[in-house]
Give the backbone structure.
Amino acid sequence: MALSKKIRSVRFVLAFWYSLIVLIAFTLFGGSVYLYLQHQLDKELEQNLVEEVDWIYRLIQVNSEGMIPSDVVPSLSQDAEQRIIEHFNTAPQNYIVLLTSTEGTILYKSGTNGQQFLLETNIPSDKTLLQSLQNSANGSLRVAARRVGPLIIQVAYSEDPTHSVMSHLLAIFGVIVPVVLFVAFSAGWLMSGMILRPISTISTMANRITAQNLSERIPARDVDDELGTLIHTMNGMIARLQASFEEMKQFSMNVAHELKTPLTILKGESELALNKSLAPQEAEDLATTYLEETVRMSRIVDDLLTLAKADAGQLTIAHDEIRIDELIQELYEDTVILSLKKNIAVELTGNQSATVLGDRSRLRQLFRALIMNAVHYTEPGGTIRIACSCTTSTVAVAIQDTGIGIPEESLPKIFQRFYRVDQARSRVSGGSGLGLSIAKWIVESHNGAIAVQSSVGKGSTFTVTLPLLRSHSSK
Ligand code: ADP
């Protein structure tokens, strides 16, 4: 098991591929040397044989002084024979020279070789024939032959020396290959170890970084290479982790703080109630406070639960066909009643008919949260305008108020959890600081977008844009 893991390790794989490439390169080189050498040796042998045949051919010419004319079979002159013997005595050993008549009568043969013909094929007269042949007495022979009138010249040389050189070369390769393999694998192993060393340094450093010291970073490399990019990526990841840890810490502190306030009120009121006997009116006031704080706490817990489930992907969004104009009409009517108490005018400035794909109760929750905020943050005598309009692909719902407005620096933060521009005012209005976070989640889960424009003292406009399924304006 441990061995198979080692074999699959990056270091082993790198060393393996390195040695394989070296082996292939060496085999190609060795093969080329082998073939080239064999070709050269063959060529040299053939050249020598052809030259020897040509030499005899020039020495003995039909009807020249090298031949003794005869009616039946020509024979070799004494002088010619002497010169051939002398010539081949000085030439390297292993030459076999055979001069015969075309009928097979031996005119001259070197050594004790009793053969009549080396080659039995038709020997041409216009060129020298080259062939290889296996001979039981002499082994593998390379033969050059040429016919000159009634005479056949054959010169052969053993191929064994060439074969022996080649097999020696093969034997040398056979010894060198394992050595090359061993050296290549060791070099590959060392090199891959050197390459991978910075990675193990990085992982040791990365291991040291825990939730307690997320501000630490892996030291950057001087070289701008792949490892540098890896370090940069990991540092980026640690920075993102640090940011989300910070966010989580802040979030937990916010939750604790939000719940602590109503709990402190409940505790104080309870202690007061226990220490003295209460008049009926006091008991009623106390019960009202209990109820208010409990409602506030359960609203916070409900909102938190919604966001937690949304984060975990546990909330499913329905994809029903929803008439946005009808939904806006209902909400408008509710808001008119709701705003009466606060003396705020509500206007529906436009309500184009449009259908979107979505979740009716979630969309209702979204627009209600925006309208409730508009009511909360608008002073008596103000106005809220609601408008629904379509483009070819989207429907936009704008909720505009003439309320207190949002300072510019707070605009990017208002969708963050628990963010409130004015802590005291929001709390008095019963807000948890989670309404816009939930609104943003609902919009995004409908593939839409939410935007805000605001000016302090003048009012705010929240615009929700959703993908349009169908517009009914032409009907
Ligand atoms: P809250 O429950 O406190 O209203 P929200 O998430 O709904 O929380 O809103 C976050 C903050 O954004 C609010 O506390 C308020 O300061 C600001 N805000 C939201 N809507 C408006 C608005 N229509 N006018 C002015 N300020 C607003």
Notes: The first strand starts at residue 67 and ends at 68.
